[in-house]
Amino acid sequence: MYEALLHHLEGVCSDLPGVDLLINTPGRPLNEATRHIPQRGSSFGESLRLALEDTFSRGYQNVVVIGNDAPEISRSYIEAAFAKLESAGPQTAVLGPARDGGYALLGLSQPCPEAFESMPWGSEQVARLTVERLRRSGFRVDRLGTLEDIDNRSSLNRFLDRARRGALSKLAKRLASLLTTSLPHYDGRQGSLQEILFVGWRALRAPPYTCLN
Predict the structure, then answer these.
(1) 171 dihedral zone (left: phi>0; alpha: psi -120 to 50; beta)
(2) How far apart are the first and last CA of the chain?
(3) 47, 58 in Cβ contact below 8 A?
(4) Contacts of 20 (CB under 8 A, 6+ apart)
(5) Residue range 78-89: mean pLDDT, rounded
(6) Which of 12, 41, 72, 137 has the CB geometry, 3.0–4.6 Å to 46, for a possible disulfide?
(7) What single DSSP character describes residue 24?
(8) Whole-angstrom Cα distance, residue 71 to residue 57?
(9) Residue 65 — left, alpha, or beta (φ > 0 → left; ψ -120 to 50 → alpha)?
(10) What is the pLDDT of residue 89?
């Protein structure tokens, strides 16, 4: 599932005009043709902060970072993030909030370490606290529309139900097929997944992040 979601978002992000796609992973990238930034850091927040700083250190002026757990991020959503960064000038941030109180996308015109320090990751306070810290650091913050990311079995099932009927039906079928193969009892109903699946899922929902400019 991790690889399927990452490949899907690689496709969404590819060939954006004037944008480079970089993948930040702890090991070798899944796609050897993609530019790779080795993942550093001992925690979720530290890895995210360093991924952004390492990207800026390569000379990029605007960086948008997404995780692989928000498959409904679209090409137009990413383009809107860059448009906001480019039109507002220096010390600009853009946040794509997630329905659970976190965020699915964060764009910055320059690093802001304060946005990642001692953050209660996984809580409903993440987006609010991030905006507060960015503003205290002098950033203008714009927002995009709210998305739902995949954090647990309930949000996964909601995504599968929606995606089966829309443009992401191919991805939904792929994920459902993987679930059926690994969990033969899975029938797609709410609450039918075993907790053991999401012990592993939570371990994999930290970066890689997709860094773009």
Answers:
(1) alpha
(2) 26
(3) no
(4) 35, 60, 212, 213
(5) 92
(6) 41
(7) E
(8) 28
(9) beta
(10) 80
Residue-wise pLDDT for 56-71, tens only, equals 999 999 999 998 889 9
Q: Which residue bears the tokens 């954090």?
A: 151
What is the pLDDT, as a whole number, of residue 25? 78
193, pLDDT greater than 80: no
- The confidence score (pLDDT) of residue 30 equals 60
Confirm if 205 and 156 have CB atoms less than 8 A apart. Answer: no
Domain annotation for the chain: domains and CATH numbers? 2-147+207-212 (3.90.550.10), 153-201 (no CATH)
In this structure, what token pair is assigned to residue 74? Answer: 């679209």
| 36-40, 54-58, 132-136, range with the lowest pLDDT | 36-40
Length of the chain: 213
The region that residue 188 occupies, defined by phi over 0 for left and psi between -120 and 50 for alpha, beta otherwise, is: left
- Report which secondary-structure segment, H or E, holds 92: strand 92-97
Between CA 20 and CA 184 the distance in angstroms is 40
Q: How far apart are CA 103 and CA 119, in angstroms?
A: 13
Locate tokens 């503003």: which residue? 135
Average pLDDT, whole number, for the chain?
83
Quick one: DSSP state of residue 211?
A: E
